[in-house]
Structures are given as C-alpha cells and as structure tokens.
Amino acid sequence: MAIPQRTAAFAYRAAASFVILIGIARVSGLWSGSPTWGSFLYYTVLSNVLCLVWMVWSAILTLRDAQSKGWYGFSTPSVRFAAAVMEAITVTMLTYLFVLAPALFTQPGAYEPFTLTDNLVHIITPILVIIDWLLFIPKGRLGRFDPVLWALIPWGYLVFAYTFSALGGTFAGQPVPYPFMNVEKNGLGGVVLWIIGLSIALIGVGYLFYGLDRLLARVGAGREERRHVERGAHAT
Question: What is the pTM of this model?
C-alpha cells in the first residue's frame, strides 16, 4: 500500500533532501567560517548524512525512471535498504528522545535540547524518512530477518567509535561520543547492559516496521483485488 506517483515522490524527496541538508549544515557549522568537522564522528550526524545520500539518490532515480517509464509507478534504489535507512535514523530519534534528552534535563551544563538544529537532525529527518517509506516504497518485500540485519548499522558505529577511541581519538574531548558508552563511568557491565538493552529495543522497533510492512501489503492487496472485482462486474 503506497502511492505509485513519481511526480509526488520526486517533489517530496527533493524537498526532504534540502531540509536534511540544512540540518546537517546547522549541526556541523558548514555555513560558518569554521565548520565543526568533529561533528561527523557522531552517529547522529552520520545517520543524517546516510539519509541525505539515500534521499538524493532516490530523487535522482525517481526522475530517471519518470523519463524512461512515465510518472506513474514506484521508484527506489532498494526496498529493503530503504527500510534499513529508516531504521538507522529511527534509532537516532528514539535514542535522543528516550536516552539523551532526559539525561540533559537532569545533568548540569549549558547545552539545551530541542533547539531548531537538534529537532532537525534528531526528529524532523527521521519523520521525513519514515513518511517517504510509508508513502512511496512498495510493501510486502521485506525478509523476516531483515530487522536483525538493520541493526548492523548502529553496531558498526559502535565498533568504529570504540576503535577510534582506542587509537587515541576523542569526541569533543570525551573518550566516547555518548554517555551510555562510557566504561569508566558506567563500568563494563553497565555499558554491556546498555548496549544489549538498546539492541533489543532497536530490533523490536525493526519488527514493528516489519509488521507494519506486512499489514500495509495485505491492505493494498485487498484493495487491488476489490478493484479487479469491480472492473469485472462493470465489464459484464
């Protein structure tokens, strides 16, 4: 169940690409005289970059397909990777809303959550990607183990972050990018519990997306079947 209209898909993806770019530019200071290149070490920014690349690629492919196949139909580089990108950025949103932002309200510091920049990279970009998946990606083509595979993206980031730290790198002066990853403060057991808990949560969210994909596929198939029946009735 999705909208097979490349006109709407291209317009949406082009606009979404621009909004995502603004968020990345604001959080990294790309439009300033001294960009904060270190911001690209964080999962938040990297997942937004992934979404930008994906959305631009999708828009280009949509336009190309429209020129060769017409403006009616679906266009996506990959149905399964579209869901993987959605899951990756949903992790950004949920971790911010339920882990990082609550901690910021209870810990001293000058940082303010829910600013325009924060909202762009943590909330607006995820919503844009989820809407694109809901509206313009064909349903019913995901594998039952795909939600586990989607977890490889955030797990890969954990490997990168700890490797970078072990080699002497820092994240704005801190040994790790996010507080729940700090072994010195939480202990090894505490960090392991955090990672296990978050992994279970993100895979669970992935299976919610998988279930929604199956449900929407059945609804779409039911509507298509009714249309065929109605057409047959009119023809007779």
Answer: 0.91
